[in-house]
Amino acid sequence: MAVDDREALPLDCKIIQEIYDNGNAQEQFEGELDEALDDGRQIIIIEPARLGEETTRWIAIGNCLHKTAVIAGVACLAAPALVQPEIARFVSIPMGTVSIACAAVYGVSWQFDPCCKYQVEYDQTSLSRLPMDMLSRTAPVVLVRKDDKYRKALHNLVAALAAAYLGSKFYHWVYQ
Predict the structure, then answer these.
(1) What is the pTM of this model?
(2) What is the DSSP secondary-structure string of 71-94?
(3) Fewer CB in a 10 Å sphere around the end CB: N or C, the chain?
(4) Angle value at C-alpha 14, between 64 and 54, nearest 5 degrees
């Protein structure tokens, strides 16, 4: 890539190019990705297919844990108001447990990982603004940095409310 080509990039963009110039290319690609994530780049374009697929999977698992924590927590909290009391406990207790477990796993495994601040970009309009003609691969993985503090706060709040609800149910079951 020439110096003039680099000027066409968005200011805070990192391209991890698929260049195999030594026997440790995969480790080099991973090191470049780690460096870009730690630097907090706004856009990261990943050309190596294997690294792109692994990163996409990792982000998808984190997204799944987040969504499961929120949806299960809402189901736990809404069930007593929406279904009969005899049925509500069979929905609330498992859903609350799932919500708490998913929030805990996310908190332990993903919360401090810099990759959790990124989402895979699929929007063709956004992708068309990137200099794809400068890449050696036609379909790279594009990561875009997103503010996730509200997302984390939401699933932590919902899981905490589910835990409080389950705690109160357990208290009433044991002491009454």
Answers:
(1) 0.84
(2) HHHHHHHHHHHHS-HHHHHHHHHH
(3) C
(4) 35
The structure tokens 């005899």 sit at 86
Q: How many CB atoms lie within 10 A of CB 128?
A: 8
**Average pLDDT for 95-116:** 92
- Token digits of residue 37: 């994530």
Helices (H), the chain: 3-7, 25-39, 49-82, 85-109, 124-128, 149-175
Q: How many CA atoms lie within 13 A of 88 on its CB side?
A: 14
Q: For residue range 46-84, what is the model confidence (pLDDT) as tens digits?
A: 998 899 999 999 999 999 999 999 999 999 999 999 999
| AA letter at 103 | A
SS3 17: coil
Task: Assess contact for 50 and 26: CB atoms under 8 A.
Answer: yes
Which candidate, 79, 77, 74, 67, places its Cα nearest to that of 110? Answer: 67
Q: Are 97 and 166 in contact (CB under 8 A)?
A: yes
Residues belonging to the chain: 176
CA 7 centroid distance within chain:
30
Residue 155, both tokens = 């699933």
Beta-strand relationship, 118-120 and 141-145: antiparallel
